[in-house]
Structure of ABC transporter permease:
Amino acid sequence: MGLRLRRISVFDAVNMLLLLVLCLAVVIPFWYMLTVSLSPVSESLGGRFYLIPEQLNFEAYRYLFSTDRFVRSIGNTVYITVVGTAVNLLVSITLAYALSKKTLPGRKLMLLMMLFTMVFSGGLIPKYLLIKSIGLLDSYWALILPGATNAFTVLVMKTFFQSLPESLDEAARIDGAGEPRILLSVVIPLSMPIIATFSLFFMVGHWNEFFGAIIYLSDNAKWPIQVLLRLMVIAGEANIASENNLDFELASKVGDNVKMAAIIVAMIPIVVVYPFLQKHFAKGAMLGSIKE
């Protein structure tokens, strides 16, 4: 049988062309940043647009990782992201699981209080005064505890937990399992799609932490990577090496290549983590969990 070619309609052709343009509009800026970061400073300062470096040069990355300031900011961001995401999941899952039980005393009042926070907020100044009064200023916990959870996340998780068959709970209780065991052994394994989704949201939020850091952290040794990126890219301070840890040979090669390299390094972790969580986004986690 000969190969039958499918006729492409004008509508399909226009759609494919638009998708190609959108794809290039997304990919080219990132490719340009990667190209500039791998170029020598003399080429990156020329101000011209190019997508292939004339010669590969890793001096920008070597300079970044030779400075304590940049490495420390990466460590700060990793700590905030890991601890913050763990706190977010712990508080959100346990609270949502408790609220999914209709027998919980005061359940309606707690739901009303959570809904109230979706409409009204205390504002920035009261929040700052509260954090100051409990001694969290200049502490990583000032970036983690105030946002330990939010009403939207809890309500979505609560609805998902309520959709799980009650027969699973009943079977676990017959086997002698208590609420903590049911949550850990039954509910969480079946809720991995929604947990993975919110885990990614929490991770991206903590990794991109900027506004809270510039308000609550006065010690620049505790700054996350996003604050340092702002200093480098917007304020134009690409030379971030401290005086007691300065490679003068490398510092003389600081330019746009270092700024682009810093952006690439700050972007890679989330890009790497996403594929591992993406598989849990698919629907159908309940298929086969109950047999009639």
